Backbone:
């Protein structure tokens, strides 16, 4: 007989603080050995940790077949005299009832071993009760679920936290233990092979046979097995859902815009139809009279469509201003400003746009203080809602014009420069360095390159006949000569100009430069295409 040197299964696992998966793997080795014995028609009848030794290299040895029984043996005609050959804590209920043992009896004993490996305690601690109560305890008292009896020392012996251990035991392992420890043999695992198969399914993340086969349970197990794939699929599904929602939203928005366009077109058609000589009875209507009629019909026609009504009011206000009817434009835009708060789509932007248009009208009317406050409020709202650079640039340009009319030249120049910066942002012709320095006036809108050097004392070498302007400018000024031309004239500046603007003498280009559309290659100067001259110290080639 072979001598086996090893340690009982539970002690070996606790001393090494093995986790749940490692303990289950060892128990599966025991199940394989017991199943091999069952295939030879041998039932062990006394499976317990002390009969399952683990060697130093981790091999499992199943011992003590001393009370084993052959399945084909019969106890008929033998007198038992009340002697029970089993270990009480690990014995199956049929052994307590002196009924024939089956392979399910060994499955019950392995269930007790599993309970002890998972929790560190026995399902029925019989030693703390009188011997006479043992059968009743085993046969009548229900077994507590492993996830309910584990404590902090048990979790520490398994190398994990108590909460994590409870999550691991909950559901599948609780169900496997509960099924293996059923009192009724027909509700229990009938063979050790069925018991081991459920343990293997649990380790692989598959649904176990002992649980009800519901779609929720299968779905949960599938997700747990394929976290990466399911996560990626969920991301793709969410992206598709978001894209579909965006497309649907865009379609609804396009439908609303189309309905608004049709309504506006019908409204204008009705207004112009009234100028038909057949309906006007020979009277001719001027453009102003048609606008007045349209204004009077707005409230009745679009009472339930504030957004469309606001768009038409802004359009009529702009037409009134272009016709020189400033009072009418101011009146309808004041009404539009009150209406903007009731618009259901982006009222903040609608109010800012209306205020900016009213500020422009009041600038033309000479109401500079009111125009200034309206423009400042509109720019604040524009920045809050996040509009495009072009819209913000136009707003700063109107603000600069208002400040210029109020003789606040420094503030006007700041507003104009902000407008220029916003207008040129993101263009390929803008220099990357934003270099500043003292330079002469920027070239006119027709300038495309540098000019011939001049010998005039005190003037920069690349402008002929230009007085130096002592102001810091950037490369963007050279690339945007039309916008620079809007800047106000500074105090003490001399030179011909129009409309109160700064002097911008046209550069004298060399003949060869004018002929081929590019500037002379002078040291320190470079060009970025036909729109302007670079300072020569920027990062662009």
Residues:
């Amino acid at each position: 007989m072979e001598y086996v040197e090893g340690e009982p299964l539970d002690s070996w696992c606790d001393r090494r603080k093995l986790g749940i998966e490692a303990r289950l793997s060892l128990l599966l080795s025991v199940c394989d050995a017991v199943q091999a014995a069952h295939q030879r028609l041998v039932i062990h009848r006394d499976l317990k940790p002390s009969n399952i030794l683990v060697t130093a290299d981790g091999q499992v040895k199943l011992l003590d077949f001393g009370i084993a029984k052959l399945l084909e043996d019969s106890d008929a005609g033998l007198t038992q005299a009340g002697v029970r050959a089993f270990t009480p804590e690990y014995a199956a209920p049929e052994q307590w009832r002196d009924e024939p043992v089956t392979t399910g009896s060994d499955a019950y004993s392995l269930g007790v071993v599993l309970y002890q490996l998972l929790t560190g305690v026995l399902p029925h601690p019989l030693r703390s009760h009188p011997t006479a109560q043992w059968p009743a305890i085993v046969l009548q008292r229900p077994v507590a679920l492993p996830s309910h009896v584990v404590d902090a020392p048990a979790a520490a012996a398994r190398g994990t936290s108590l909460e994590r251990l409870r999550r691991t035991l909950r559901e599948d392992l609780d169900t496997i233990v509960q099924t293996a420890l059923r009192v009724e043999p027909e509700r229990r695992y009938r063979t050790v092979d069925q018991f081991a198969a459920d343990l293997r399914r649990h380790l692989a993340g598959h649904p176990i046979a002992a649980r009800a086969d519901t779609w929720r349970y299968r779905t949960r197990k599938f997700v747990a097995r394929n976290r990466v794939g399911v996560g990626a699929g969920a991301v793709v599904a969410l992206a598709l859902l978001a894209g579909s929602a965006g497309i649907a939203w865009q379609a609804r928005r396009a439908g609303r815009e189309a309905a608004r366009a049709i309504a506006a077109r019908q409204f204008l058609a009705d207004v112009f139809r009234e100028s038909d000589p057949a309906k006007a009875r020979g009277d001719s209507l001027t453009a102003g009279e048609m606008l007045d009629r349209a204004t009077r019909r707005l409230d009745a026609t679009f009472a339930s469509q504030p957004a469309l009504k606001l768009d038409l009011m802004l359009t009529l206000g702009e037409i009134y201003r272009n016709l020189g009817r400033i009072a009418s434009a101011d009146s309808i835009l004041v009404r539009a400003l009150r209406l903007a708060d009731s618009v259901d789509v982006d009222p903040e932007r609608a109010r800012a746009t209306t205020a900016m248009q009213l500020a422009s009208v009041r600038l033309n009317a000479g109401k500079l203080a009111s125009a200034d406050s309206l423009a400042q409020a509109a720019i604040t709202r524009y920045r809050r809602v996040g509009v495009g650079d072009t819209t913000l640039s136009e707003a700063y340009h109107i603000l600069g014009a208002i400040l210029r009319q109020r003789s606040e030249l420094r503030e006007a120049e700041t507003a104009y420069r902000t407008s220029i910066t916003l207008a040129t942002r993101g263009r390929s012709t803008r220099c990357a360095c934003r270099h500043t320095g003292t330079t002469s006036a920027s070239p006119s809108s027709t300038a495309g390159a540098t000019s011939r050097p001049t010998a005039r004392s005190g003037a920069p070498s690349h402008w002929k006949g230009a007085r130096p302007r002592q102001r810091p400018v950037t490369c963007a000024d050279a690339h945007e000569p039309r916008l620079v031309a809007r800047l106000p004239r500074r105090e003490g500046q001399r030179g011909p100009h129009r409309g109160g603007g700064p002097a911008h003498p046209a550069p004298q280009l060399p003949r060869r430069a004018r002929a081929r559309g590019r500037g002379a290659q002078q040291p320190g100067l470079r060009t970025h295409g036909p729109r302007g001259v670079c300072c020569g110290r920027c990062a662009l080639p």
Remarks:
- The mean pLDDT is 75.
- The CA atoms of residues 448 and 530 lie 4 Å apart.
- The chain has 23 helices and nine strands.
- The beta strands are 7-8, 42-43, 52-54, 60-62, 69-70, 437-440, 468-473, 526-527, 533-534.
